Amino acid sequence: MAAPAVKGVAVTALRSVLLRVRHAAERAGTQPERVRVVAVSKTKPESLIRQVYDAGHRCFGENYVQEFVQKAPQLPEDIEWHFIGHLQSNKAKTLLDGVPNLAFFEGVDNEKIANHLNRAVSSIGRNPLKVFVQVNTSGEASKSGIDPSGCVRLAEHVKSRCPHLEFSGLMTIGMPDYTSTPENFRTLSNCRAEVCKALGIEEDQCELSMGMSGDFEQAIEMGSTNVRIGSTIFGPRDYSKKQPN
Question: Domain Alanine racemase N-terminal: where (predicted)?
């Protein structure tokens, strides 16, 4: 009998998040429609994802390949799926074969994974895959992502050497306690300016994916166009079945 209560909580939480996103965008002078909310559903059952889907949401994110390729086929094909985080290059084809409606890959953190994704997209003949380059803005050894000094080179590689990938922007994951997120966000914004200058593109053609449950409003106020919200919508996570990527 718990399902209706869970459903109510998740849907109510989603609506609250969307309202907070709207207000943050308005404070930033940005159209709320320009900010994408990725509902991060890792470790959550298909039934709960479907409830949020039935409330009108279409953009979801997953972090673990094995879990992702099992869940995605059980859910509607019009979901805009995002893969978030580090991926071993030898699992690129597994991911793309298992999730044909993968819309975004967040994020590419080295040339090797970019090359593997490019080949995997080509081999299955799907449309180009949109990718964000992941930048390690906090300097933590435990975090994936390229050093800010290398983001231009990696973005140029994706743009010029990976015809089956579409460079779409930059992403970062802030500090666990969120104490330095303004600095992290500023670093990513600075990287965007450098990348856009090098690639000869306008800044509005380069998205910023930054901000999670604890800091997404501040991220939007500092220019984020893509926020990744998990526990605030879906509740605490059970990591007992976590599998490496």
Answer: 23-237
